[in-house]
TrEMBL record:
It comes from the Bacteria. GO terms for biological process: negative regulation of DNA-templated transcription. The keyword ATP-binding does not apply. This is GntR family transcriptional regulator. Residues 14-82 form the HTH gntR-type domain. GO terms for molecular function: DNA binding; DNA-binding transcription factor activity. Keywords: DNA-binding, Transcription, Transcription regulation. It comes from Kineosporia babensis.
Amino acid sequence: MGPKTSKIDRRSAVPLYSQLKRLLVADLAVQGLEPGDRMPGEHELCESYDVSRTVVRQALLELEHEGVIRRERGRGTFVADLHSSRGIGGALVGTFEDIQSEGTEQHSYVVRKGVVPATALVARDLQVGVGDEVVEIERIREVDGVKWAFTRTHLPMAVGLPLLDLPLEDVSLFGILERDYGIRFERANRSVEVGLAPETVASALEIAAGAPMLVMRSLSLDGSGRPVERFVGYHRGDRSRMEIEVRHAPQEG
């Protein structure tokens, strides 16, 4: 695999296979290996890192379960594609449907929900007074068993209050509001920027505070232009990407 970032520390209390996992991930990044690139075989890894085949196999097994690598019988071990573009602003209907349409195993669950006073930013977006009561819902989304995104949603009381009495796991807030309560979403203003994980988000996603993230902010409006939903979605930077399709518009005349 070329130059290695560091060596196994045999004086450390950290198990050898755990150290090897960390080193392999770091070395993949340093050497610029991309999804689909072949990794060295077990024998070569044993020699490169001076560990037993048992240690190598345990490290590779866990990396495979975590989606970092993929192993194909008779072909070898390859770098997997950790990044996902699922659910990042791709459709008005929301993240749940975006992910679901990809055919992957996904799960969403509520971290907390309740009534909170509107901050200045929330009040501005939802066109309510600062300190007015609004509904707040925080959820985590998993894709293929990995915690991928943390979303914090705010809704005006008239729109969001019915949601507080409903189970909101593995459902679309958009779908419930449109189907059961006649709230029609006509358009959304969205932005995506690079940010760093706040402590609360990092803790929820089990990543390091300050880790890079793709942050999407969205304000949805109904046909009359009334704000009906505001959310901020924090997507793990190491597992997210934006995909943009550009088409040439034929010139008239």
